[in-house]
Amino acid sequence: MLPYVLITPARNEEENIEKTIRSVISQTILPEKWVIVSDGSTDMTDAIVKDFTSDYPWIQLVRMPEHRDRQFAAKVHCFNAGYRQIGDLTYDIIGNLDADITFEPEYFEFLLARFEENPRLGVAGTPFVEITSDTYNFDYANIEHVSGACQLFRKECFEEIGGYIPIKGGGIDWTAVTTARMKGWKTRTYTEKTCLHHRPIGTAEASMLMAWFKHGKKDYFLGGHPVWEIFRSVFQMKSRPFLFGGLFLLSGYTWALVSRMDRPITKELVRFHRGEQMERLKNIFFGTIRTVR
Questions:
Q1: What is the Cα–Cα distance from 252 to 116, expressed in whole angstroms?
Q2: Is the pLDDT of residue 200 over 90?
Q3: d(Cα 290, Cα 167) in Å, to the nearest integer?
Q4: Cα–Cα distance between 113 and 111 in angstroms, integer?
Q5: For 231, left (φ over 0), alpha (ψ -120 to 50), or beta?
Q6: How far apart are the C-alpha atoms of 212 and 73, rounded to whole Å?
Q7: What is the mean predicted confidence (pLDDT) over 237-249?
Q8: pLDDT tens string 145-172
Q9: What is the rounded distance in angstroms from the CA atom of residue 136 to the CA atom of residue 113?
Q10: Which residues lie across from 102 on neighbouring strands?
Q11: What is the CA radius of gyration of the chain?
Q12: pLDDT tops 70 at residue 290
């Protein structure tokens, strides 16, 4: 089986970090190394990790300086700090693992097998399940996208895309996966397995509705097509929070459009992304028509 390493940025994750650690140490195939980078945590995160490092020497704790804000770009700086600790270690797969998810003991064995089956597979993962919701509906959530909760990269792919790009407003995981496809790599979410996400995504420092507003802004500055955003917003209205989630999503996109919010990605990536969205929208629409007939 292909050797792999893991890196986990963590900030004030005392509530969940032990669950994640126990999931990793229970894997049927263990990583060569796992670097947990504490992003200036002020709670018991560091102490919890240290309790495991003596019994599991392949787990390493790295501490970053304390800071008050929780910017998405900080995740990249933490990941890069962990990446530097990997050094000349031999591995084929590198994983970015959140500090608040859990999974079955065969989780990584399953994903590593997918990389062995397909040499052009550059990024792989699974859907995540939140305690308060179901998994994504993959009619609208691209099965070629890989959730940032756990992303495994083939080493060559990760190096070719230049790793993660620090984007203050978010979209770091999405940018990496979409860039990989743009460069010809295959990316895939495998629905045969899931991981459990213990904190609702996008709600660390925001209400649920404001989280959807921020999602809309992010959809804009990551180059999302306006036609796609309308369909996405209407679809979201059918899920919790009913109606208002979709309205806030579209409002965030519209606000960013009107204010001409800067886009931190290349025009080439915007064109590629919009082309994918329109192709998928055509498939969804004409597929529905064929089903009705």
A1: 41
A2: no
A3: 41
A4: 5
A5: alpha
A6: 20
A7: 93
A8: 999 999 999 999 999 999 999 998 899 9
A9: 23
A10: 196
A11: 19
A12: no
